Amino acid sequence: MDASVIIPAHNEAETLSRCLAPFESQSAEVVVVAGGDDGTERVARETSLVDTVVRSDEGGAGAARNRGAEAATNSVLCFTDADTVVPDDWVRLHCRHYANPDVVGVGGPARPLEDDLKHRVLFKLLSDYWYRVSWPVGFVQQPGFNCSFRADAFEAAGGFDEDIPFMEDTELSLRMKHRGRIVYDPDSRVATSARREADEGYLSLFAKYVRGYANHYVLRREFDAEYF
C-alpha cells in the first residue's frame, strides 16, 4: 500500500529533524504541517525527504492533521507527532494490515523518550496494557502519535473533529470502528516525549480524560472545551 506520513509540528524546530530521520529509509510521502514562530517551517522546507510542507496556525492538532491529510496523495494516512520517533519499519508495520480490505485503521503503543523509570512504567501501563484491555471490548483509542487510516474511510468519516481541544484521536477512533476493523499492532511501538505528562502530572491528565470519557460516552454530552 502507498502511504503518506503526516506530521503536525507547532514550534518544534528543535525536535523535527529527529522525528524525520527514520523516514530516510522508509517508502512514504512525508507531509509536515508547520506552525509557530520558532523556525519549524524552515526546518521542514530544508529537509530534502519532506515532500510537502503545509503552513497552518489555526486550530489544534486535529485541524493540523486534517490539513496534512488534505495535502496527502496516497491510500494510507499515517500520523505521528514532531516530538515522536518511529521505528525504521514503522510505515511497513502499519501498511501490512491494509492488505485486509476490512481494516480501516491501525494503532500502536508508545514508550517515553525520556530515560526515567516512572515514565517507563506508566507508559507501559497506559500506552500499551490499557490498549490491550480496552480495544477488545470496543473502546478503541488510536493515539495521534501512532495511528493510521485508510484514506477513503478517513475522508468519508470527516477526519478529526477540529472543535475538540484534545482526545480528538479517541473520538475519531470510535467513529472509525463503525466503518471497519481497527487493528492494534504492539510491534509498531514509537518513542514519544513525556514532557506533557511531566508538566501536567499523570494524575491530572488522567482526571481530565476520565471526565471527558464520562461526559461524552456515559452521559452522552457533546465534547466541549470546558470539560477539560
Tell me about this structure.
The protein has a seven-stranded mixed sheet with strand order 3-2-1-4-8-6-9, with helices on both faces. Strands 5-10-7 form a three-stranded mixed sheet. It is of the alpha/beta class. The protein has one domain: Spore Coat Polysaccharide Biosynthesis Protein SpsA, Chain A (Alpha-Beta Complex), CATH 3.90.550.10. The radius of gyration is 16 Å and the shape is globular. The mean pLDDT is 88. Helix content is 38%, strand content 19%.
Radius of gyration: 16 Å
The count of β-strands is: 10
Highest-level CATH class: Alpha Beta
Strand percentage: 15-25%
Helix content: 25-40%
Structural class: alpha/beta
Q: Which segments are poorly predicted (pLDDT under 50) over 5 or more consecutive residues?
A: none
Main β-sheet: number of strands, strand sense, barrel status? 7 strands, mixed
Per CATH, the architecture is Alpha-Beta Complex
How does the overall form come out from the CA principal axes?
globular
Strand arrangement within the widest β-sheet reads 3-2-1-4-8-6-9
- The separation of the N and C termini measures 38 Å
The succession of helices and strands, N to C, reads EHEHEHEEHEEHEHHEEHH
CATH H-level superfamily title: Spore Coat Polysaccharide Biosynthesis Protein SpsA, Chain A
Annotation field: number of helices = 9
Q: Quickly count the domains.
A: 1
What keywords describe this structure?
9 helices; 10 strands; 38% helix; 7-stranded mixed β-sheet; globular; 228 residues; Spore Coat Polysaccharide Biosynthesis Protein SpsA, Chain A; alpha/beta; 3-stranded mixed β-sheet
